[in-house]
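Exam revision sheet. Question 4 asks you to relate a sequence to its structure. Input first:
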Amino acid sequence: MDINTILFALLGVLMTGYAVLDGFDLGVGTLSLFIRSEEERRLYITSIGPVWDGNQVWLLTTGNVLFCAFPLAFTTVFSGFYLALILLLVALGARAVATEYRFEYTSSRWVWFWDRAFGVGSLFSAVILGVALGNVLRGLPIGPGFVWKGSFLGLLNPYAIWIGLLSCALFVMHGALYLGMKTEGEVSHRNSRIALRAYVVFLSLYCVAAAATVHTSPFLFRKADSPAFWGLTALLVTALAAVPIMIRARRRGAAFIASSATIALMIVVTAWATYPMLVQSNLDPELSLTIYNAASAPGTLAAVLVIACIGMPIMLGYTFAVYWIFRGPTR
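Answer key, structure tokens:
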């Protein structure tokens, strides 16, 4: 295992951490759009209040590692995703500001505006992240010299939009499971029921997406004859099946863990299927970006690894401490 592979694995860990942790944040925000009770909406926001900002650190760290370790992939992809990235930052910024500003005044219009900013920002973030992932899975228009040859409207293709809806349903399920675990009484029971309905929607979208991926992105199945591929797939199916079982058994913590495992295994399976490729070119496979042709100089990679070895334990320790301190139900 060389340093390029280690940093590729680190990117996978960071993406998994972000999807699992900020995924329920986005789900909670999306669910808040459908709550009429002011008291309950405050409860939703308060349930993620101590952790949402720390969760977003995982996204920032992912971008930093990608930029430093694989700068060609970063510049090529984001030159095409530039407008989408700006929209994502606006959505994330809106929900971040809303969680603080809604408590500054008691005016009903003021609270209504920031509550909608929080909910809509969460919904848009979940969809935009999914659309971006869908385009990466589909392959990007990378031409000679690793130059982006596509357009913004080209990103809004049916497959990517479907993956955007899939990610939204997944995060809503994940957020409802988190609320079921962090709240009590009728609110907890209702969110468990919402999670079960969201699971049905997510599973339906996922089955269609899997079938479409076989046709759209056959390169993702190049390792389909590998025992590791099928072993990881079996684990993913097990985690998927465990979610509704744990919900019906009212084991809310176990259901949330199963949902987290589902998200993590979806990323792991995708990473295993693409390795050592970072981004597939749908114009010419020879122009695809890999962990080798898109990498920084060896000295830079070594520096990134050293910094990661210092920073990751701090980030993990902070994350564990915050969740431990604020464990238990939110009231």
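Marking note for examiners. The two ends are 48 Å apart (CA to CA).
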